[in-house]
Amino acid sequence: MGFKLGGVNPALVTPFTKEGELDLKAMEKLLKFVISQGVNGVVPCGSTGEFTYLSVEERKKLLEFVIEETKKIDSKVKVIAGTGGSSTKEALEMTKFAEKRGADAVLVCSPYYFKVSNRNLYNHYYCIAQETSIPIIIYNIPQLTGNSIDWRIIEDLAQLDNIVGLKDSSGNMSYLMTCLEKAGDKINIVCGWDEIVFPALAAGASGMILASANILPDIWVEIYNKMKQSKLEEARKLQFKIQKILRLIVKSGAVGVKSALKMMGLNVGKSRNPLALGGELSYEDKEELRIELEKLGKIEKEKVEMEIKPGAPLEKRFGAIGITPKKIKDFSLKIGEALSGSEPEVAHIEVLIGEKNGPVGEAFAKAKAAPSPGHEPLIAILEPNLPVKPATLIIPTVKIKNLRSASLIYGAAQAAVAKAVADTVKEGYIPEEEADNLLILASVFIHPAAVNRQRIYINNYKAMRHALRRAIENRPNISEILNDKEKAKHPLKYEP
User: Fold this and answer.
1) Which of 60, 78, 167, 419 is catalytic?
2) Cβ-count burial 246-264 (b if 16+ within 10 Å, e if not)
3) What per-residue string of b and e applies to 273-282 under the rule 16 or more CB within 10 Å gives b?
4) Which superfamily is assigned to 311-319+330-485 in CATH?
5) Residue 484: its pLDDT value, please?
6) Annotated active-site residue in 139, 224, 410, 461
7) CATH class of 7-239
């Protein structure tokens, strides 16, 4: 047939305008971006493309556009059209359309919503294969469709001439290995679960179709090429370098990908309801995603001039998203707030950061000199007799009533706060040269029912780190997040 499934293929998001309509201009920009990074193919109208939220007319319009634009940009890049449907009739209609419009291959997920027997799963693909001649890729993603395609069906379908591949997004290496064993000599099998691409390629998979390839196409191309060159250790290190991003993207899907692309300057709009930021991608995970993208250099760190005291300008590099002040002239008081985790180990931290000779210094001294009963403050230390710099005072939000509560706030939470401050200085978000001139007040919430010390440590570390960055960068505080959550509780009170 001339089509061979393999290489790096981004599972494209579907861009939407503010009004929720298809944004073809944004799709064109996305296509140019991923193709410029050396990908082998693009996959519109798949799971990451929210195809189940598109009408048939919208899917056809989008497929036609992607096919035409991709050929204009680079005719060597293949278009694998997502043509799955909940019924065989719908999937066949979409497959025939993609074939007529010039797609190189189609990606057909198993039927969804109704539970389908193995026999009828086979018949679904057999019918589509018999009535079309376009190369067909079977798509196994049981966590979304509710129908797992048994390896025996894969083995049988591999006998058909125009069944050329399998995309496995189950994340199950045992299943993938079985499919490679039973059908790998007849069809090409690619990995669709971002977190296990390295072992999948090592096992014999011919490539990948991934959501994260929207934002990391260059890294995936590098990993793929190193695997082809048998440079396994280098490829493994590269995958571990991006593993946290992959975990966040697998967890959040299109919402996470779209948030990351916006951070990188490619605004593809929001996902369609009910998918939304704050749900599929939590606000703390969004912060973590941003931090990881900064580490990779995907988000530019802007140079800003900071005047911590008159006559002492200090240039530092800050990672920033959205509106970032070019000069931070009044550093007497900065406020930040962040949430991390879920009950009962949820962490909620509010920070004040500022000069010793300002309002933060006064509050710092007052808190130490006249502590409220049950809310006694504690200096954060990295290790015995080594306070963190800037000096940080932890103030319990919830009144401490027993030794267990005291051990959690002054133990796990205190250690987490100290580590977060130290790391924030190390990363340059707090100028190391001015650490002795600054003070931090951290109001720390520990739920009375919290018991897991490790989770308390992790959540408070994240919350403190995020709160400091919000304060330094003058970004929206947590009240806006809470407002969004309130809207989510009462959607009829607010406009869509």
Assistant:
1) 167
2) bbbbbebbbbbbbbbbebb
3) eebebbebbb
4) Formaldehyde-activating enzyme (3.30.230.60)
5) 44
6) 139
7) alpha beta
Every domain of the chain with CATH number 3.20.20.70 lies at 7-239
**In which residue are the tokens 């260059």 written?**
218
Give the C-alpha separation, 264 to 215, whole Å.
8
Residue 113 corresponds to which amino acid? Y
- CA 298 from chain center: how many Å? 13
Residue 180: both structure tokens together: 């490679």
Q: Using one digit for the tens of pLDDT, what is the confidence trace for 382-436? A: 888 788 899 988 888 877 767 766 777 778 888 899 899 999 898 888 888 888 8
Residues of the chain with CATH 3.30.230.60: 311-319+330-485
Known catalytic residue at 167: yes
Catalytic annotation present for 426: no
pLDDT of residue 312: 35
Instruction: Name the pTM for this structure.
Output: 0.73
Instruction: Please write the tens of the pLDDT for every residue from 240-277.
Output: 999 999 999 999 999 999 999 999 999 999 999 998 87
Query: Which two structure tokens, joined as six digits, stand for 402?
Result: 């027993």
Q: Do residues 459 and 346 make contact, with C-beta atoms less than 8 angstroms apart?
A: yes
Tokens of 415: 């250690």
User: Mean of the pLDDT values across residues 351-376?
Assistant: 78
* Among 361, 300, 354, CA closest to 471: 354
